Fold:
Amino acid sequence: MIHTPSLQELREKINPHNLPVHIAIIMDGNGRWAEKKHRLRVYGHREGINRVREIVRCSGNIGIKYLTLYAFSIENWKRPRPEVNALMRLLKEFLRKEVDELNKNNVTLRYIGHTHKLPESVQNEMKRAQEILKNNTGLVLTLALNYGSRTEIIDAVGEAVKDINLGKISLQDLNEDTFSKYLYTIDYPDPDLLIRTSGEIRVSNFMLWQIAYSEIYITQTLWPDFKENEYIEAILDYQKRHRRFGGI
Ligand code: FPP
Structure:
């Protein structure tokens, strides 16, 4: 008989000395998950939030330092208005309901993307949650909201050119390290592990600069089915990889 390891057994397999410091996730497949169940797509997003809660909690428990979730891309505005509105509503609801639990778990919250273009009521909820969590020292949870990586890179170029014109830095000073400080992720380490659910093999304009050397884990599992056990499997898979960063 094949033994399916329990969550506890899986957790014990994790090597604490080789943990990914930063995990980034493209949470995909909510719509398909709902459609398979003959439900509206929003039902899938709602269940997706349960996985967000679970994965955030698990990340903190394991000792992951940074978790970045692709929650809403610049391209997602193209979706039907009711779906966009529902996603905004769910985001507000998540921030309102989860903040105490996040606080208990010592999580801080950051955002990347053109968040100033989100509805004001969403921005207010975002600020409120961020303020409550600002002194925590555990997991840094980053939500990518109205995020697009090409836009991020163009924004960074703009800021760098501004500083060059102001004489704050010289063109000669611009290198991979100094340029990366102009990205929204300013002081984060690059993701060690990028997870994408639902089997699509693409990066969809997500952290293009930062994932240059990330290990990629793609699973067929749709996001609403991506539970803690598979998250740990992804981390164990990462721990088997031999990272060479272009060397040998
Ligand atoms: C992809 O599924 C998922 C999204 C576009 C949004 C992800 C949002 C959530 C999990 C809920 C809100 C998040 C937070 C952090 C509160 P899809 O709709 O593209 O699915 P499909 O590819 O099957 O159509």
User: Anything to note?
Assistant: The helical segments are 7-13, 30-36, 41-62, 81-104, 120-133, 149-165, 176-180, 228-240. Residues 27-32, 41, 45, 48-49, 52, 69, 71, 76, 90-91, 94, 143, 198, 223 surround farnesyl diphosphate (CB under 6 Å). The mean pLDDT is 96.
